[in-house]
Amino acid sequence: MDLKLSMYILHHSSIRSVDHLGECLSKVGPGECNISLKLHRTKCGRLITNVFGPTYLQEIVNAVGRTHYSLIIDESTDVSVNKYLAICVRYFNGTSLTVTNDFLGLVEVERATAVDLHALLINFLQKIGLPLQNMIALGTDGGANLCGRNNSVFTLLQNDVPNLILLKCICHSIHLCSSKASSELPSCLDFLCREIYNWFSNSPLRKIEYRKIYDLININENRSFKNFVKLSPTRWLARFNVIDRIVDQWTELKTFFNMVGDKEKCYKAKTLADILNDNKILMYLKFLLPLLQDNYKTNLMFQSDTCDVGSAYSQYFLTIESLAQRVIKPLFLNSNSTQIMPTDSKLQVINRIKQAVENDMAYLSLDSFDEKNEFKRRCFNFLKSLLREYLERIPSNIEIFDNIKFLNPVYALNKQHNVFSLLPINKFILQNESMATIENQWRKLALVEWQYEFNNKVVPNNILQFWPGVYNYKDGSGQQIFKELATVVLRVLSLPVGNATVERCFSIMNIVKTKIRNRMKLSTLSAIIRTKIYCYNRNICCKNFVASEEMFALFNSSMYSDSGDNANANTSNNDENSEIETMLNIVTSVDE
């Protein structure tokens, strides 16, 4: 009962609230039958910090075992202005037969230099028992101290793991593309997107007045009202949502600010009214909307933990090709005066586009630039800038992802097009693994009737669902006849796609550690984040939680022993109501 209630508190409430909850539950039912329950914040805090956290960390380390894994790291600062390095791991879990992203922990950072971060990372891996030699890739957000060319965490790790692969977050890159290209458009667009949200954000009266106008204009239409979105330089998907809401409510906004501009002597309101009355601004926004929608969908694909990497990068390349065809002459895109063929490698197409953007003669010609064609010129320059940004941010090891599409079941099970030499696995085959054995298993792959090996008699199209099934496939004698091939492929699929996993950890951190709970210790914070993500990945909640033998083994008096960061964790982690109680005591004393 103590473990189950502590798991409930971890997921749904603050630790301090268990004081009253435990006392209420001790007397329940007819006649207030007594239940032997002694759970308060001290015990609950120690169960979270010294039982749940260590148990799940050990289970993750055991699940990784001797398999190869990738690390995803990033830095952030919490509400108490403490700087942390978050460490996540991506690996193939042989027990659940899934490629899993798990949270390992937080490490407090004093100085965010490459040497210091590298030392902290190495010490953390040694402490938890994760072998550094099995790391195949490092995922970062692109910061110079994490992945710079000369002196970074990545270059220092290469001294220990020479074949380590660096993967910068594609989600950050896609976001920066549209953000930087927007400088080619009138600055009043950003002003409009930013100030419309600010106008309504802190005024309930303005919201009510605007809602009345909105309902009046749409009185005969079944349209639901949607709030405006804040334009943020750090939120990857915000720009599309901001413009989409403004375009959707353009008439209502124009009517509202025309009235406000006449009634209120406010320069900002008049400026917004003038912008909304300019039809060219609406044309710019409608021009941007489909481009940002492609950007939005592509970014969203890469953020998913179950992302089909081959399909996602195919969509990424398709976006680049589509932009190139809008600004570059066909002669410079085609090879030997022929059209782009489906059989052409995407890298060949991208290389031709890279050469074309450096040639001023390759761009499509426009009419003479005058005031009438200013709109056309700015839009054309935006497309050129967006294309350049996309090309500059293509990963340096893109050839791996370009060929991942051949691991898709559509290609892998096609007897005519499953060419072994096209597979992106050469860099991931170890010295003790036989290339001949792997190739032989690849040739047999298309001969198996795989629809009978999966649920619903359907072969999954997602490679993250297909290859674990191949790994687990057994013949009549119980032997895994595709184990060597599937092991190498799953090693490739363990590469991090983006940095979204660690960003989600920081989102959880900001929800757990708030201004009121600003004294929460690092050990408790790490345990809560780790447990939440571990349970989410495995569909565990407090309702179906079952305590393991390891948890019962740690559930003893030794969990109360204070050491280092755990000292006084039970009190410092549960002061979320102390400020309120102090304030109420002061008010009471004043009244008396």
From TrEMBL:
Any one Gene Ontology MF annotation carried by this entry is: protein dimerization activity
Q: Which Pfam families match?
A: Dimer_Tnp_hAT (PF05699)
- What InterPro entries does the record tag this protein with? HATC_C_dom, RNaseH-like_sf
Q: Where is the HAT C-terminal dimerisation domain?
A: 477-529
**What is the protein's given name?**
HAT C-terminal dimerisation domain-containing protein
